Amino acid sequence: MRGLAGLLLGLALGLLPGSASARAYTVKPGDTLGAIARTHGCEVDDIKKANKLDSDFLRDGQALKLPRACRKGASRGASKGAKPVKGAKPAKGGKAEKPAKGGRKKKPVLREVLAAHGFGGRRSLKVRVIEVTLDKRGRRIVDEDVYDWEDSAHDHMDWNAASTVKLFSAVGAIERLQAKGFDSRAQVTFFGQGKAQHTVQELIEASLIKSDNLAHNRLVQLAGYDFLNGRVLKNRGLKHTAIHRPYETSRWIPMTGSRTFRETPKIVLKQGRKTATLPAEQGKHGYTCPHSAACTSVADLAQAMRSLMLHEQLGPRDRFKLDKRSLRLIRDALKAERKRGMDVVNLLEKAFKPGQVVAYHKPGFSEGWISDVVYLYDKGSRKRWIIAAAAQPGRGALNGMATALGKALAAGDLSD
Q1: Predicted confidence (pLDDT) per residue in 237-285, tens digit
Q2: 190/239 same-domain check
Q3: Domain check: are 269 and 212 in the same one?
């Protein structure tokens, strides 16, 4: 009883079991390791060492240990640190911050890095950049840093993510298929008002390459409202993302009679001699986007692209549940050339030597908002970058940022 009482008292005081010198901290939206360390009066390295972290990447809801150094610093009163001043001049040579003599080099500030390459900013801009360094064999991540434009990475209510969310519907459809024992070669028949038949591969290629809205709608139906929004998104920490209503309703409603994804028709799966029937369903939970049919944040988009493109280097907890064939199908679709939406990728690639980098991405455009989520692979180094960005108005709203960021990445200005 005394041991149980001690455990309960320790939890009440915020102490982690088995450690008299560490407290528990739960990561909140917008948190970074730097901000947590400043608030608690310690160093980022103290927190990383206590939690065995090999990167600065954090998930909403993640449990961290705050070690003894943090507790001591907090008792003295921690400084929150100053926010970067808009328009501040970067240090010479394009580097955002200079290390003090004999001190450790500070992590660059994204605004200052982009300003050094001629980009002054845009009020509507939302950006998250993740820089990843792999080991020499490319088998594991040895370093990872996250950079946000101001406090924009977790914004999800005031912009239109448009076709970027089709990344989530493709993953959700495949995960549900695999849970039923099928893969992307399966043929799917949708019932309701009439009958529609497709292969899953056709739907994914149409949705991700051609950005076909009806193909996206079918993938959401296949994934199922609660399965997609709950098991695939919210349960993985993608808390800002939901897909609630169909796109292109002027064609979709006359075809299906459906105004929401909460109602799913009967679906029959067939692959070889194997068949399965998914009965019509009514979603039980509320995953809404008050101002649009779907919503997300650039933080969620970056996390999804990270899971897809670094699948082999991540542990099971950080991956999507995709077999090799489905993973290759989605990656090939993200790598394909598109008729529109190539500006961000083209400008990023322009900063490098011809053929030096390969890009995978999913752009979106609606209501004046242009967005893109990109994985940039440098064939000449161990560096990889994930960039998720959005801005308005117009298709050129991200061009200045992409031009400056490409130059910064090529020059190594984010590396610390």
Answers
A1: 998 999 999 999 999 999 999 889 999 999 999 999 999 999 999 988 8
A2: yes
A3: yes
